[in-house]
Amino acid sequence: MNPDIERARRESIRWLILLALNNARPIGAGERLILTIAQAEYPDVTEHEMRRELDYLEDRKLVDINKKPSGQWHAELTRCGTDIAEYTIDCGPGIARPEKYW
Questions:
Q1: Would you say residue 90 lies in a domain?
Q2: What are the C-alpha distances in Å from 13 to residues 57, 69, 70, 88, 102?
Q3: Quick one: average pLDDT of 63-85?
Q4: How far from 75 is each of 33, 37, 53, CA to CA, in Å?
Q5: Is residue 80 domain-resident?
Q6: Which of 5, 32, 53, 91 is 20 to 30 Å from 77 by CA-CA measure?
């Protein structure tokens, strides 16, 4: 696969995760729900790929992840993650957030 296409895919999946978690506030969402939402756009997204992008978002302090002993992950937006999803702060590179048009 073309590196630019792979990068665009990763960044789009990150944006989908932020949108899903913004809609799931204040309780957040389990990884199965997030994966189902990502697969609506990219049917071949794997659990591993989704977890990798969740880790990226956690490293940027945009999500908090609760990695349960059962192996399941549960994620919630942080304050900064909410601000990114609601277009109240600058997004920076790495997330395919569309330009604000309103």
A1: no
A2: 11, 25, 25, 20, 23
A3: 96
A4: 10, 14, 12
A5: yes
A6: 5
Q: Which pTM was predicted? A: 0.93
d(CA 34, CA 60) in angstroms, rounded, equals 18
Domain containing 23: what range?
3-85
Give me the number of domains the chain comprises: 1
| CATH code for the domain in which residue 25 is found | 1.10.10.10
pLDDT value for 91: 94
In angstroms, the CA 4 to CA 58 distance is: 23
Is the residue at 69 inside a domain?
Answer: yes
